[in-house]
Amino acid sequence: MMMMFREEHERKLENRRVEEDQRRREEAAAKEARLLADKAEAEERRRQDKLEMDDRARRDKEEARARTQEMLLLIGAVFKKE
């Protein structure tokens, strides 16, 4: 009788160990998935930020070119009047 209780107790312990190992593996996999998702999200943010900076730089350059052209036209108009 004692032997049966001991065997049952050992089976229960082994089942708990297996369940605990499975839980740890699942937690590790979930953590890895979160890390990969965070990394992908950060990379996408960097990519979007770079696109926005490039677009802003292009617009600034176009605006500067337009202001320069306008200034040249005004200077030309002033010299024609003289």
What are the key terms here?
single chain; 82 residues; mainly alpha; rod-shaped
Briefly say what this structure is.
This protein is an all-alpha fold.
Notes on the protein architecture:
The chain has 82 residues and is an all-alpha fold. It has one domain. It is 98% helix and 0% strand. It is rod-shaped and about 120 Å long. It starts with a helix and ends with a helix. The mean pLDDT is 94. Residues 1-65 are annotated as: Disordered.
Tally of alpha and pi helices = 1
Percent of residues in helical segments? over 70%
| Global geometry | rod-shaped
Ends apart, CA distance between termini: 121 Å
Our count of domains comes out at 1
Strand-pairing-aware structural class: mainly alpha
Cα-based radius of gyration, to the nearest Å: 35 Å
Give helix and strand order, one letter per element, not per position.
H
Largest sheet entry: none
User: Averaged pLDDT, please?
Assistant: 94
Low-confidence runs (pLDDT<50, min 5 residues)?
A: none
| Total number of beta strands | 0
Relative strand content: under 5%
Region (Disordered): 1-65
Which helices and strands, and how do they pair?
Layout: H1 2-81
